[in-house]
Design brief:
Layout: E1 6-15, H1 18-26, E2 28-29, E3 32-33, E4 43-51, E5 63-66, E6 69-71, E7 89-91, E8 105-109, E9 113-115, H2 122-126, H3 128-141, E10 148-152, H4 156-168, E11 172-176, H5 180-188, E12 193-195, H6 202-209, E13 214-219, H7 224-233, E14 234-242, H8 255-261, E15 264-267, H9 274-280
Parallel strand pairs: 10-11, 10-13, 11-12, 13-14, 14-15
Antiparallel strand pairs: 1-4, 1-8, 2-3, 4-5, 5-9, 6-7
Amino acid sequence: MTRPQDVLLKIEAVGICGSDLHPYTCGGIGSLRVSYPWILGHECAATVLASGPGVKKLKVGQRVAVDPLVFLWRVRSVPGGRAHTCRHQQFLAAFGQVPGALVEQLVLPEECCFPIPDSMTFPQAVATEPLAIGLYSHRLAQPKPGAKIGILGSGPIGLCVLLACRAAGKYGIYMTDLLEERLAIARQCGADWTGNPRREDVVALSASRNPWDWILLFECAGQQETLDQAVDLLKPGGTLLMIGIPQLDRISFKADPLRAKSCACKTCVARMSVLSLLSTW
């Protein structure tokens, strides 16, 4: 430990995020390239082994969920209240910043660690990080009650968006994915309707059942194909939120239908403090 506010953690469980695979398949994420060796893993839960003299809220033996966002110094205010986009930060496992959690022990600032109840398992604590993405995505979208929502991509992030929407209100939710087992889980978690682009034309099927109904779409796959589908599915005046992380440096949109429909696209930088998640749920 190098700072008074640091804690030494015993890593108990680590999740494998889709973005952890990008260094292997693409050599990095966007402009952030990786030189090997580098330690990955940013979704984690741990037990406090030791603490510095400036630690005030945590005790040795405490079980914690970890926020992978690490401030270089305390920032009292961030324009727009978006602390997770502050320039004075580093991210766990991001190359050249903070080595990741796929280790036995890890040192982090106290402010990154949040106590979990005895009823919560370590794997559940790990899931608070991706679940926070779903929660923040819903808050960013602010759908009206009864809105028809599409979630393209039923992997862990798409399912977290589904759970956040289901917990917040009653919406009609349509989900797509290439894997039937993921769609089965989506239906178990509350999706009203699912579609597999490998087996059917999801755009045509949607148009035949609910023409122009999708006022809000979450793209959770990070694929050009699903972005194109989202543009075709959107109701005029609708909103598309990009939640998935593309492997490519650049993506494109069908400009003509977006212009004609007067739709809006937003990129969701959907990393938020685990503290916000735990205090809300």
